[in-house]
Specification:
By secondary structure, the chain is mainly alpha-helical. Helix content is 58%, strand content 8%. The model has no long low-confidence stretch (mean pLDDT 87).
């Protein structure tokens, strides 16, 4: 969360999330793919921003991180 929250207000805005993700987009990727990535991020952002205040709080981030971790643990458990 700290790497995304560049203005250090304790929350991550959509533009901060987009800026962070673009660090990992390969050089030479088409603008169409970049735009699709932005749209996907916006959709995901809106799902995580449960109080709809336009930012992802640490609490919202923790809920998602915990959920993802539990999903990974569940997937890796032997059946």
């Amino acid at each position: 969360m700290d790497k995304v929250d560049t203005d250090k207000d304790g929350k991550a805005g959509l533009q901060e999330l987009i800026n962070f993700s673009e660090q990992f987009v390969q050089i030479g990727v088409s603008e169409d793919i970049k735009e699709q990535n932005r749209k996907n991020l916006e959709k995901t952002f809106n799902q995580i921003d449960t109080d709809k205040d336009g930012s992802i709080s640490r609490g919202e981030f923790k809920v998602v991180a915990r959920s993802m971790l539990l999903s990974l643990i569940h997937i890796s458990e032997p059946t």
